Amino acid sequence: MLSAAEAKARPPHSACTGAEFEMVTVGGEVDFITKMIDESLVLKERCQWYTTMLGKLGSLEEVVSRLKKRGSVNWAVGEFIQAGKTRRWGLAWSWGNTRPPKEVARGISSGSAVPKHCLSYPPEFLFEVEDQPVEEVAQKVDSLMLSLDLQWTHPQTLSGIGIANGNVWSRAARREKQRMKAEGQAKKSCTTTKGKDCALMFKIELAPAEEGSVSVKVTWLRGLEGKLFESFCGMLKHQLTNE
Fold first, then answer.
1. Which whole-number Å values give the CA distances from 102 to 77, 122, 139, 165, 179, in the listed order?
2. What pTM does this model have?
């Protein structure tokens, strides 16, 4: 910290009033936060989210790297800019499967210097369906969701929430469902109301867009596998747009 301060061309804008034992720790902020991560591994989901703030971008990269090495797949990064000069970075992580919204998971500006590998998996997927009325697209979404082995609720015509125990939209899963149906067997589906233990919980929202197209927004609500969410979004887009 002292060497970094000496390297600055200008003096600080404000004086530091903290005592040395409050401002300095062995290993710096990286080791301090690493200890927090290790302690969170003991507490796990007894605490939903763990948060901290870092003063150096290089520290953020190292801490995120250590977090991923310890098995984390659910974290959020934010950037704080004070008076257009000083920058700080916030980091939050969870060992549960509740996904933060996009503005929290990736709370940085478009021109931010935060490397992409420091960011978690995108929790939103957007695409458009052309030349179809929104009611027709909504009917297609309902029919598709009801054909899959998942829990689907749609309290509003243009939105709905789905819960799945795994990749139930693959060709293999569909063939297995048809086989069991032909043999008169019932396959257990995901019935957890809040989706706490499910592999994937998502929300689909439809809205009229320009030139007669329909905007489709898929939000990742729960789950730990980014590839599973990506696979579902790809399947949905293919089914609605034939691309």
1. 10, 7, 27, 23, 39
2. 0.84
